[in-house]
Amino acid sequence: MAKRATIKDVAEAAGVGVATVSRVLSGGSASPQTRERVLAVAAQLDYRPSALGRNLRQRRTGGMGLLVPDLTDTFHAQLAEGVLACARSAGEPVVIGSTGGDPEQESELIGMLLEQSVDRLIAVPSGDEESWAPAIRAGMTVVFADRLPAAPPVEEDPAVSALNDLLLLDGAAPPPARAKPLDVPSVVADDRGGIRTAVRYLRGLGHRRIAFIGGPGHDRRAAAFREAVGEPLDEELIVFGTGSRDSAYAAASGLFQSRPDLTAVVAGGNVLGEAAVLAARELDLRVPRDVSLIMYDDVPWAELCSPPLTVVAQPGRDMGYRAAELVLRSGGRRQRSVVLPTELIVRGSCGPRR
Amino acid sequence: MAKRATIKDVAEAAGVGVATVSRVLSGGSASPQTRERVLAVAAQLDYRPSALGRNLRQRRTGGMGLLVPDLTDTFHAQLAEGVLACARSAGEPVVIGSTGGDPEQESELIGMLLEQSVDRLIAVPSGDEESWAPAIRAGMTVVFADRLPAAPPVEEDPAVSALNDLLLLDGAAPPPARAKPLDVPSVVADDRGGIRTAVRYLRGLGHRRIAFIGGPGHDRRAAAFREAVGEPLDEELIVFGTGSRDSAYAAASGLFQSRPDLTAVVAGGNVLGEAAVLAARELDLRVPRDVSLIMYDDVPWAELCSPPLTVVAQPGRDMGYRAAELVLRSGGRRQRSVVLPTELIVRGSCGPRR
DNA sequence: CACTTGCGTGGATACGTTTTCAAGCATCTC
DNA sequence: GAGATGCTTGAAAACGTATCCACGCAAGTG
User: Fold this and answer.
1) How are the residues of chain B apportioned to helix, strand and coil, as percentages rounded to the nearest 5?
2) Are B111 and A48 in contact (CB < 8 Å)?
3) ∠ CA A157-A161-A167 to the nearest 5 degrees?
């Protein structure tokens, strides 16, 4: 109700100029006695600097933006929690947006952030590199998390493509054939290692026909899967949903029905894993007797399934925290990308090939 | 890189004053030809008004704040998605904060929002009424979602307490014994009806010793449980966790061990339900043979459990959406609280008392 | 002592917008 | 025709802050 004290009030009450108050509060130089007096008066007036004035003056909003496809996806929620934890300890606000996996909504949200002059952004991207170029060009400091934007739709160059597959491990964006690649730091999990471990584990159990169910943004994982499986590659065993739970279910169900010969499935994300369990149950496929299942993402409910799900765990919370650190510390110098390790957590959803 | 065009640029390019440009863009009155020219120039310069200038001028940041205990709790994630959906369609930014269920962190985040001049806030509160008074007093438009802040710790007046229980259904905050109650609109589920339906259902299956496991903020549900169970009331069958998954597990496990005679459990939230399933399994209690379980919150993974969990569904997404509508539409007039219906979804986690 | 150096300080300015206010002009009314 | 009325318009004043710059004063240097 009572309007808050401004820097001017503090200056008058302390008998100094506003510039001095600003300096004291921003850690600038000032004589010990003035500093003390200003601090005392500020405390007494319960003065809190208004972010509005500061933002306008500096032509940028503090804090960071966070763009995620869907908070209902437990992994994204974990990632968001990590970002929020870091932001909280830095006292910075986080403007969040949920894109629904739709590049168009993503672009709109980027526009909104631009309007707010939020110039630091952590994103689990949905659009391709092309759709991210404007944000970069506008001067935003972007850090990608969990995944990288797909290369724009250009004619595929097999050589480059193969090269990309080989380079999967490092976090750099795979260079598209034509457009200059956007050079953005990222925090991702070691998809290649995680998938390879999963496939090897299944192989060790005797499985030969292993399928992969992915969602949008799981291209790296799919590529890693192809690589891990090696020749002969059965492309029919690699299917994709569009992001919604329904489409994930449809993809899983379709896969099980069209290829009853498969004996194991790797789900590229927890929503896909959920769909796989549901679809298997609906088709009277027992896990792991009839089909073994490994799910990407360790989520609390993975243990609740029966049997408990064997998963490839990636440190969602850490990824968010690290991404936030990167984007906050980008005080000028470019940051290096980060690749975090994954871990295969063996529970009960995989068995020997029957 | 290239700095964005300002309203001044547009004004010069269109040969009008800045005031006119502002009016045209804010829907004020202007002659058709000027309007058209301004619009054309603005489009050509790709002008987008800076929220910074506007915010400072209006001494308030647009959009809204959102405070939630934990995004990893699927219900809160659903609620957040609802809020974000509404905000997105309104083109408004959302500043989010995760409190971890800690009143202190909650207060800090409120302070941060105040600093940002965010004057509209949707909260799943963790602190009590007392800790929310400052925010209200500072002129914030607050809408509580999912739960209401607890009454401050005053000497319990049995009469008032009983009255509160009777008034549970309506969304108004239960008036504390002393301090003036804070009159804040809210969007909550019909906890009383949901719990009553659950208890009646269990009763119908023959259960007599029914327990309730709650977390922070589940006081209304606990009260509703007491009411639904009626006399004789066995207070030992009502236990609380502190919010973390660990403490939820501890509460559930402790309950099962100390009262092996119970035959059914109502979990006050999905984290508690998760803990109950885990604890039961650990103690070799079969669901529903040995113990029946009803969980508050319908979440996607409820169906994955085996048996699939019977739940009291509350429309989390809708609650978020409605809360956002309330807080956005609060253009002056006070809003009425909203109580949304719950629904008992019978799956397989409840059976007859053995 | 004259001159430089350095530091603490406060006045003034700019950031981009909305809103108030008065002026200009055309139309309407008596 | 004089006055009143209505509409469009632009200059100017905020909003609260950070920062540039110039000023004063003390200490250091020749």
Assistant:
1) 45, 15, 40
2) yes
3) 150
Provide the β-strand partners of residue B121.
Answer: B65, B142
Q: Which residue is nearest to nucleotide C20 (CA to C1')?
A: B19
Nearest CA in chain A to B316: A72
CATH no. for residue B216?
A: 3.40.50.2300
Q: Is the peptide bond before A232 cis (omega within 30 degrees of 0)?
A: yes
Residue B182 lies in a domain: no
Number of inter-chain CB pairs under 8 A, A vs B: 150
Between CA A268 and CA A225 the distance in angstroms is 10
* Other CB atoms within 10 Å distance of the CB of residue B18: 14
How many Å apart are CA A113 and CA A125, to the nearest integer?
A: 15
B4, B7, B48, B55: best to mutate for the A interface, most A CBs within 10 A: B55
| Helix/strand/coil percentages in chain A, nearest 5 | 45, 15, 40
Q: Is residue B150 in some structural domain?
A: no
- Structural Rg of chain B based on CA atoms: 25
The answer to whether the C-beta of A19 is closer than 7 A to strand C is: yes
- State the Cα–Cα distance between residues B225 and B210, nearest whole angstrom: 10
CB < 8 Å to A113, chain B: 93
Look up residue A244 and give its two tokens. Answer: 């919604």
Q: What CA–CA distance (Å, rounded) separates B65 from A94?
A: 10
Contact: B72, A300; criterion CB under 8 Å:
yes
Query: CA A79, B269, A80 angle in degrees (round to 5)?
Result: 10
Q: What is the CA angle A185-A186-A188, rounded to 5?
A: 160
Of B48, B66, B87, the residue that ends a domain is B48
Domain containing B245: what range? 191-314+341-345
From CA A285, how far away is CA A255, in angstroms rounded? 12
- Residue B222 in tokens: 């606990």
**Does residue B265 sit within a domain?**
yes
- Tell if the CB–CB gap between A1 and B137 is shorter than 8 Å: yes
CATH code for the domain in which residue A43 is found:
1.10.260.40
pLDDT tens, residue order, chain A (354 aa): 567 899 999 999 999 999 999 999 998 788 899 999 999 999 999 999 999 999 999 999 999 999 999 999 999 999 999 999 999 999 999 999 999 999 999 999 999 999 999 999 999 999 999 999 999 999 999 999 999 999 887 655 555 555 555 555 444 444 445 566 778 999 999 999 999 999 999 999 999 999 999 999 999 999 999 999 998 889 999 999 999 999 999 999 999 999 999 999 999 999 999 999 999 999 999 989 999 999 999 999 999 998 999 999 999 999 999 999 999 987 666 778 999 999 999 999 999 987
A51 vs B97, B98, B115: nearest CB: B115
End-to-end CA distance of chain B: give it in Å, rounded.
Answer: 72
Q: DSSP string of B183-228?
A: ---EEEE-HHHHHHHHHHHHHHTT--SEEEEE-TT-HHHHHHHHHH
Residues ≥6 apart with Cβ < 8 Å to A153: A128
Q: How far apart are CA A273 and CA A67, in angstroms?
A: 23
Handedness of CA B14, B15, B19, B24 (dihedral sign): negative
Q: Any atom of strand D under 7 A from CB of A203?
A: no
Q: What is the pTM of this model?
A: 0.91
Q: Is residue B263 part of a domain?
A: yes
Count of domains for chain B: 2
- Per the CB < 8 A criterion, the answer to whether B211 and B267 are in contact is no
Query: Going by C-beta distance under 8 Å and a sequence separation of 6 or more, which residues neighbour residue B335?
Result: B143, B185, B326, B329
Shortest distance between the Cα of B98 and any Cα of chain A, in A, equals: 7
